[in-house]
Amino acid sequence: MKNKPVLIFLLFIVLYSTFFLLKSQQPTRSVTIENKTYKLLIADSAEEHSKGLMNVRKLSNADGMVFLFEDSQVRTFWNQNTLVDLDVYWMQDDEVVGKSFLPSIDQTKAPITIDSKVPVNRVVEVIRK
Fold first, then answer.
1. Is 52 left (phi over 0), alpha (psi -120 to 50) or beta?
2. What is the pTM of this model?
3. Roughly how many angstroms between the first and final C-alpha of the chain, as a whole number?
């Protein structure tokens, strides 16, 4: 019974870690574009919009990210701290209204921006493989 406190402590660590791992996982949504279905992380807050896929080299549980906005506007995205190449789909609701390519910062060496040509309320970034 000497090991009982150690076992209780280890059990606590495992449960605590599991709780925070599950809590920190971002929800996903399936989106079909050009007859291909992608599993995408959801960015639906200003904080998530500004962070996006910055500093990401690989996603183990998703193909990219969908940015959901409350209104339709011309949107501007950039590659600051973006470490992967992205296909960017500009969408109005479920309709793709444009597509752009956003290269990684490693390729451009300086931040660049891309814009939707028309107002959109969703933007999908898919990591190029």
1. left
2. 0.80
3. 53
